[in-house]
Amino acid sequence: MRITTQMMYSQFNADLQTTMDSIYRTDEQIATGKKLNRPSDDPAAVSSITTEKAQLGTFAGYQDAIGSATLLLKATNSSLQNLHTLITNARQIGTNATSASPQDLATYVSMIDNVIQSAMGVANTKVGDKYIFSGYGTDQPAVDTATGTLTATSTANLISMQINTGVSVNVNVTAAGLISSAAPLDNTTVIGAMTSLRTAIQANDQAGIHTALTALDTLSASVLTSQAEIGVRMNRMDLEKQYLTARDSDVTNSVSDKLMLSDVEIAKLITDAQQKQTSLQSLRSITSGFLQTSLFDFLK
Asked: Which parts of 131-205 fold into alpha helices (H)?
């Protein structure tokens, strides 16, 4: 096959274009500090980075969920601590009432009334716009402050929040069964026992007072148990948060390693760029000399 001048020109031109493209990409990498500036640079690496960035988004979502859950559980724990204090106060009032004169009983009734009102306030604690003890009915109070009983929208359901893949945690304690109940109130709930204590003090019913105090002792232990359960949940979230933080760091570093150039790689690229520039100059020189034509070339 005859090698024509046109064929040689085309080959030299193709080699020249390839070399210039390589120099451009090397210069671009040095300027941006990135290994990848477009998907076509390394489709496999870009696909891996896309997947890892999606993982980072998932981690961020779980971290936000842990933050929200922690806020709710801290508020719940604080409220239960207040409730425990109120139970202690009610017990003290009841104990004092057992040895009070009939003239002083009205004072103790007034005092227990104030404690009951405070207990209803605890039951209707809000975080943001949500009532944290209302179960699924978070848009409405848990307890009717006029009667001390549960509202119609209050439920005994626990609210679960996903904090990692396959990991969920309950983020609430309900008023139902612990703080209050549907009518009629009895000694099985905090407000019910306090109401029974009030009635017994008002009637100077010593047996009734002792019964209510015993119920409050049991409920005090129940509140402490609920607080302990919250502590377990918060410890679980702390562990998940530590795990997510570590995974986020690992994946972030992996993305950075795939995307960004190290100082050593930049130094190597600079050397490569200088070598490619030298090759380009040589190719241009060879092409210029080889493809020169004259009138004598046409006369041959």
From this structure: 190-202
Rounded (5°) CA angle 129-170-63: 75
The length of the chain in residues reads 300
Give me the CATH number covering residue 229: 1.20.1330.10
Going by C-alpha positions, the residue among 160, 289, 133 that lies closest to residue 237 is 160
In a domain, 290, yes or no: no
Q: For 91-148, how does the pLDDT look when each residue is reduced to its tens digit (9 = 90+)?
A: 999 999 999 888 899 999 999 999 999 999 999 999 999 999 999 999 999 999 999 9
Largest Cα span, the chain:
139
pLDDT in tens, 202-219: 999 999 999 999 999 999
List CB contacts of 224: < 8 A, sequence separation 6 or more. Answer: 84
Whether residue 20 is contained in a domain is answered as no
Q: Give this prediction's pTM.
A: 0.75
Ranges of beta strands (E only) in the chain are 126-127, 130-131, 160-164, 167-170
Q: Give me the residue label for tokens 């069964």.
A: 177
Q: How far apart are CA 245 and CA 274, in angstroms?
A: 42
Contact 174, 134 (CB under 8 A): yes
